[in-house]
Amino acid sequence: MTTDHRRAGVTGPASAPAVVGPAPARAPTGAWPAPTPGPVGAWSPWGEMPAVGKPRGGATDAGKSRSRALASGIISSLAGKLVGLAAPLLITPLAFRSLGAERYGLWMAVTSLTGMALFADFGLGNGLLTRLARLHGTGERRAASREVSSAYAMLGVLAVLLLAALLATLRWVPWPELLNAADPAVAADARSVVLLCFGAFLVNMPLALIQRVQYAQQQVAQSNLWQAGGSLVSVALVYAAVSRGADEVLVIAAAVLAVPVVNLANTVCYFGWQGRELRPRPGLVAVPAARGLLRLGARFFLLSVLSSVVLNLDGFLIGRVLGLPAAAAYAVVLRVFALLTLFVTLVNLPLWPANGEALARGDLTWVRRTTPRMVCLSAVVVALPGAALVLFGNDVLRLWVRSADLAPIPRPLFAALAVWSVLLAAAAPLFMVQNSVGLLRPQFVGWAACLLLAVPLKIVLAARVGLSGVALASAATYAVTVLPAAVVGYRRALADRNRARHRAPGPGSRRAAAS
C-alpha cells in the first residue's frame, strides 16, 4: 500500500512498503489453501499452483475488464483524494476556533503519535491484499474466505489487546506533562483526547481491512467512494458539533470517529449483501492461512520500516549538519514535492491487485503491456509539474508560506528533488508487480544499499554543497540502488510466472495421464 511509503509512492495501500524480493523456491506446506482441482506441481512465486498451460480462454475479455477497472480506480482515487484533502481544510478553521490554540495543538500532537503507529497492523493488510488478489484470479473463493476470516481474527485480537493495554496504562502515563499542556482545563482533557485518538485508531485497524478486500476484488472505485464518504461525514459531524456549541472533547470525537464508523458501515454493507461468500466467520479461521499472512505481512512490515527510514532521514541529517533553519526550509520544499509522489501512489495502487489477478490467470501479456505505459504516465505526470517548480518554485513558496523567515531556495535544490520524484514515479509500477506476488527481496536489497550509500554521501554533500547536495545525494543513490532493484525484481516476477506456465502440463498431457 505507503508515505514513508506515501512519499515513495511505491510501498502500498496507503501504506504498504515497496515490497520484497525473490520468493522461495516452494512455499512451505500449508502456506496456501489447497488449490482448485486440476494438475499441480508447477513452481511459481506462490508455491504450488493449479497448473495452467496458457492464459484462460477469456483472457482478452478479462484484460479489457481489468483495464476498465484500473482506469476507474485511478480516476476515483484522484477524486477521493481531492475530497480527503479538502476535508482537513474545512475542519481546521472550525476546530481551531472551537478548541482554541492550546487544545487544538494538544489534539494535533496526539494525532502525530498515532501517525507514528501506521505500521501497527504489522503488514497484515498488505499481505491480505496480495494473497486475496491471487485467489480472486484463480477463482478459489473458499480459500479466499479463509484468508479474510483469518486476517480479521488476527487484527481483531491485536486491536483488543492494544486497546486493553491503552486502558490499563491511561491513568498511569503522565499524558498532560508529556504533551506539555500548560492550561489546567486543557490538561484535564489530555487523557480523554488520547483515549479518543488512539482508541479510534485501534478500532479502525480491523475495520480498515474492508478497503484491502475491495481492492483485491478490483472494486477500487467503490472503496474510494466509501473513503470519500468518511471524509465528508467527518466534516458534517464537526460542523454539527461546533454549531451546537458541543463540548470540546465531543468536537474532537466527531472528527476522529467518523472514519471507523464509515468503515464499519462499509464492512456491514459489503459482507451483508455484496460479498457474502467472503464474510468473516469464526469457523473459517485457519492456522495455515494465518501463518502465511503473518509471514508475508512481516516482510511487508520490515520493508515499510526500512524504506521509511531512508525517505525520512533527511531532516535529521540536515539539522545536524546545517542547522534547524535549513532543515525547516528543506521540509517546506519537500512538502510541495510530496504532493507529486502522493499522485504517484494514488495512480499506481490499483495496479497492485490488478497485477496479482492477471498473473494468477497467466495473463503476462496484459502486465507487460500495462506496466511500461504506467511507468511513462507516472514519470511524465510528475516531470511536468516538477519542471514548473524548478522554474517557479520560489514564487509558489512565497504565495504559500508568506513568511520572511523562508529564504529563497536555490534552483538546484528544486531540480534535484524533481529528478528524485521522477525516479520514484518510474519505479512505482515496477514495484506494484512485485508487490502483487510478494516478491520483496530485490527491494530489501535496493533500500538497504540506498541507506548505506545515502547517509555518508548526504553528510559530505550537505557540508560541501548545502541543501542541494542532500537532494542530489537522494536522487543519485536511489538511481543506482533502488531503481535497478525495481527493474530486476520486475523481470524476476515475470520470469517466475512465465516458468510456471511452461512447466505446467498442457491439455494433451492431462488426457494422456488420465488414460
Automatic annotation (TrEMBL):
<keyword id="KW-0812">Transmembrane</keyword>
<dbReference type="Pfam" id="PF01943">
    <property type="entry name" value="Polysacc_synt"/>
</dbReference>
<feature type="transmembrane region" description="Helical">
    <location>
        <begin position="374"/>
        <end position="393"/>
    </location>
</feature>
<protein>
    <submittedName>
        <fullName>Lipopolysaccharide biosynthesis protein</fullName>
    </submittedName>
</protein>
<dbReference type="InterPro" id="IPR050833">
    <property type="entry name" value="Poly_Biosynth_Transport"/>
</dbReference>
<feature type="compositionally biased region" description="Low complexity">
    <location>
        <begin position="9"/>
        <end position="33"/>
    </location>
</feature>
<feature type="transmembrane region" description="Helical">
    <location>
        <begin position="249"/>
        <end position="273"/>
    </location>
</feature>
<keyword id="KW-1133">Transmembrane helix</keyword>
<feature type="transmembrane region" description="Helical">
    <location>
        <begin position="444"/>
        <end position="463"/>
    </location>
</feature>
<feature type="region of interest" description="Disordered">
    <location>
        <begin position="1"/>
        <end position="64"/>
    </location>
</feature>
<feature type="transmembrane region" description="Helical">
    <location>
        <begin position="193"/>
        <end position="213"/>
    </location>
</feature>
<feature type="transmembrane region" description="Helical">
    <location>
        <begin position="469"/>
        <end position="490"/>
    </location>
</feature>
<keyword id="KW-1003">Cell membrane</keyword>
<feature type="transmembrane region" description="Helical">
    <location>
        <begin position="300"/>
        <end position="322"/>
    </location>
</feature>
<dbReference type="InterPro" id="IPR002797">
    <property type="entry name" value="Polysacc_synth"/>
</dbReference>
<feature type="transmembrane region" description="Helical">
    <location>
        <begin position="69"/>
        <end position="92"/>
    </location>
</feature>
<keyword id="KW-0472">Membrane</keyword>
<feature type="transmembrane region" description="Helical">
    <location>
        <begin position="225"/>
        <end position="243"/>
    </location>
</feature>
<feature type="transmembrane region" description="Helical">
    <location>
        <begin position="150"/>
        <end position="173"/>
    </location>
</feature>
<feature type="transmembrane region" description="Helical">
    <location>
        <begin position="328"/>
        <end position="353"/>
    </location>
</feature>
<feature type="transmembrane region" description="Helical">
    <location>
        <begin position="104"/>
        <end position="129"/>
    </location>
</feature>
<feature type="transmembrane region" description="Helical">
    <location>
        <begin position="413"/>
        <end position="432"/>
    </location>
</feature>
